[in-house]
Write a structure and sequence with these properties.
With about 575 residues, the protein is mainly alpha-helical. It contains 29 helices and no strands. The chain is elongated. It has a domain of about 160 residues: Tetratricopeptide repeat domain (Serine Threonine Protein Phosphatase 5, Tetratricopeptide repeat), CATH 1.25.40.10. About 70% of the residues lie in helices and about 0% in strands.
């Protein structure tokens, strides 16, 4: 009887421990939901200390470390867990996330597939772990994440709003705002108080610059759950440059619901930057680095210093701070604006200007906001023009043209002209110019510009004129320009075309009579044109030319008039 009672007590104790354990895991996951990663780390560390074989606690401890930007600790946590259980599905999913951040996409996918196959796609926590890894890493496959979350919605008894939030974030990564918003709304159907879903919906509207909707979504999120810090933070960021007092109010609310941490002083320093108190921001940053320690401080403090120095026109220290930021930050924690910052610094660092382009390129490649991409390209175009690097100008104008949703005739013309100008440095650009102006003549057959510049491009390719590449284009140009109501504005270009035909008839066909006819056509337009007078004098047996110019050779110089900006 006593033995039976003892066994019952043991059984009851096990049940009670399991109940406490389950609640503790939920507590830790709740901290993760609020992005209170330090609190979550403490919970899961204690759980794992109590039971080193607790794979769920190990998985979430790794996630907390990732949230704290400590991938090394996360990796060590997963490696240790796998030593005890090499086939643990949840840990394999976590390790896959680390491998994605390390650029080992194949290894990661193998681990994801192993985790899913071993659970036969029926464990919702494993499905979410795999989807989380792919939705929230730069190298992750967002479509793969969506597929796993769609499977999760078909499981018996499904009612987990987080599934739809992860799905929505995966759609957001795919720049599919419509499906992302639908997913977040589905999460709210399952749990109307799920603030994360309303907040994430706001993120979509913010990417679309729909101010009314995204501000409303953030404000509604904190009404749903006054402890949901991320929404307060986004409201703080929105008011950052618009109303420092409002920003400060939201910052205090944010700090009141997140984990206490000396590094929270960063936000106060950030407000100094917003208030244009750049010197104070720098000195306070240095003090915080000294207080926390350079090996512990988050890299963002160096980014803040770089921006502050840049505003003070202290480019050397801006570069030093930016270098420190990039040295310390994890690649997957870099945002497009970081690349823009470094590009801006390089653009004003003597001797390093050309290095800016690679950083603007990285910003373009990683930013999902169209307007931001356009801004980065324009910065590169402006820099290339400032540097008078005509090849770089043409390359960046090509990218700018590709980004335009409805490019105009002026855009196409400017691209063609930039290619033509670059041809004087790199011959293949003449061929690019010819291709662009071929498109121009097809799209705008009634405009003379395309024919003229296609003629100039072909002439630069066929400098000897033996292949007569420019002939049909100059002929068409003369026809269209002469019949145009603005024919007077094309006088300079028409003279260039006539001079081309003088050279062609002198050096290729030996038809001097025809060459003289073109001399007369020029003189009919401009009786004082000295080159035409000299050509005709030579061709009619006169004395040596008074000018040393050989008829027919392309000079590559701009026409005397009418070569400026064209109208839409």
């Amino acid at each position: 009887m006593n033995m039976k009672r003892s066994l019952n007590l043991v059984f009851l104790a096990i049940v009670l421990v399991q109940q406490v354990f389950a609640q503790s895991v939920d507590d830790g996951k709740k901290f993760m939901y609020y992005e209170r990663f330090n609190s979550a780390k403490d919970v899961f560390t204690k759980l794992l200390t109590a039971n080193p074989k607790n794979d769920e606690a190990a998985y979430w401890l790794g996630q907390a470390y990732i949230g704290l930007e400590d991938d090394a600790a996360a990796k060590k946590t997963y490696q240790t867990a796998l030593q005890g259980n090499p086939t643990s599905p949840i840990i394999l999913a976590g390790m896959g996330q680390i491998e994605l951040n390390e650029g080992k996409a194949t290894d990661a996918r193998n681990h994801f597939d192993m985790a899913l196959n071993s659970t036969k796609f029926k464990d919702i926590e494993v499905l979410k772990a795999v989807a989380r890894s792919n939705a929230y890493t730069t190298a992750g496959d967002a479509n793969y994440a969506v597929a796993q979350m769609q499977k999760a919605t078909t499981l018996k008894g499904f009612k987990d709003p987080e599934v739809y939030v992860i799905m929505g974030d995966a759609y957001r990564k795919l720049i599919d705002g419509g499906n992302a918003v639908l997913a977040f709304k589905n999460a709210l159907v399952l749990n109307p108080a799920y603030a994360a879903a309303k907040y994430k919906e706001g993120r979509i509207y913010e990417s679309q610059k729909n101010t009314e909707f995204f501000i409303g979504a953030y404000e509604e999120a904190v009404k749903m759950d006054p402890n949901y810090g991320p929404a307060y933070y986004s409201l703080y960021v929105y008011w950052y440059f618009r109303d420092v007092a409002k920003a400060e109010d939201y910052l205090h609310k944010y700090i009141s619901v997140i984990d206490a941490d000396p590094q929270n002083d960063y936000y106060t320093i950030d407000l100094k930057y917003a208030a244009q108190k750049y010197g104070e921001a720098i000195s306070m940053s240095d003090a915080l680095i000294g207080k926390v320690g350079p090996d512990v401080i988050k890299p963002r403090i160096y980014r803040l210093k770089a921006y502050s120095y840049l505003k003070l026109n202290d480019y050397a220290n801006a570069k030093t701070s930016a270098d420190e930021f990039f040295k310390k930050v994890h690649d997957h924690d870099i945002v497009p604006k970081d690349y823009e910052l470094y590009g801006d610094i390089m653009s004003i660092t003597p001797g390093s200007e050309s290095k800016s382009y690679q950083y603007y390129d990285k910003a373009i490649a990683t930013d999902t906001v169209y307007e931001n991409k356009v801004e980065y390209v324009q910065k590169a175009v402006d820099l290339a023009k400032k540097q008078k690097d005509i090849v770089a100008v043409s390359d960046w104008l090509a990218k700018q043209y590709a980004f335009k949703k409805s490019p105009s005739n002026v855009d196409l013309y400017n691209l063609g002209r930039s290619y033509f100008d670059a041809g004087s440095v790199s011959f293949p650009y003449y061929k690019k110019a010819d291709s662009v102006f071929a498109i121009y003549t097809e799209k705008y057959p009634d405009q003379a510009y395309g024919y003229y510049w296609r003629g100039r491009s072909s002439w630069s390719i066929d400098t000897s004129m033996t292949n007569a590449l420019a002939n049909p284009h100059f002929d068409k140009f003369i026809e269209v320009a002469s019949s145009s109501k603005d024919s007077a504005t094309f006088k300079g270009q028409i003279k260039v075309a006539y001079k081309y035909f003088i050279g062609y008839n002198v050096f290729v066909t030996k038809d001097y009579k025809k060459a003289i006819e073109y001399c007369d056509k020029i003189l009919a337009l401009d009786p004082a044109d000295q080159q035409a007078l000299d050509y005709k004098r030579q061709l009619t047996g006169g004395k040596q030319q008074s000018s040393g110019t050989t008829p027919g050779k392309p000079t590559g110089s701009k026409p005397a008039s009418g070569s400026g900006t064209i109208k839409k």
